[in-house]
Structures are given as C-alpha cells and as structure tokens.
Amino acid sequence: LRSAAVDRAVLPLAMPLWVDTTDVYDRPLRRLVLAQDTGADITGARHVDLYFGWGAQAAALAGPMHANGALYVLLPRPVEGPATAR
C-alpha cells in the first residue's frame, strides 16, 4: 500500500500524501503514499482510492474499504533567500 489514485484536477500525480484512516478491521491505517493513478469514479477532493495490490488477499482488503479519514498533502517548505549549493 504505497500508491493512491486521485482526481488530477485536484492533485497532481507524484504528489506525496499522508493517509490517516482505518482498514476494514477497524485498525489504524497510517501510510505515506504517492498519487500515481487516476480513475473515472475518482472525482473531487473528497475521494482517493488506495492501492492494495493484486490477488485474493488484496481484493479482500480493498473491496469493502469505504472508510472516512484524513488526507494530508505534503509540500516542501519554501526556501528563504537565494538557494545555495553546499
């Protein structure tokens, strides 16, 4: 679980995101993921699909996953003054 599908009108691809939610067993699910995909049903800022992998085990985790949670967009700090190489 390190990839998410997003609406590109809201978030650009390759954006690092912090996910804070629960899994289908109500266990905490806190992960750093990258916005790496899009989808026709993913519209707006309130919907993100998390990639759980492939196979029966991934389908068992991803299929019933409809949890609310928090999504944080990770942005670099602004550079103050001219940037210099060290």
TrEMBL record:
Fetch the Pfam families from UniProt.
3D (PF06725)
Q: Which domain of life is it from?
A: Bacteria
Q: Which residues form the 3D domain?
A: 2-74
The GO molecular function terms of this record are:
hydrolase activity, hydrolyzing O-glycosyl compounds; peptidoglycan lytic transglycosylase activity
Q: Which GO terms describe its biological process?
A: peptidoglycan catabolic process; peptidoglycan turnover
Q: Cite a GO CC annotation.
A: outer membrane
Q: What is this protein called?
A: Murein transglycosylase
Q: Say which species the protein is native to.
A: Endobacter medicaginis
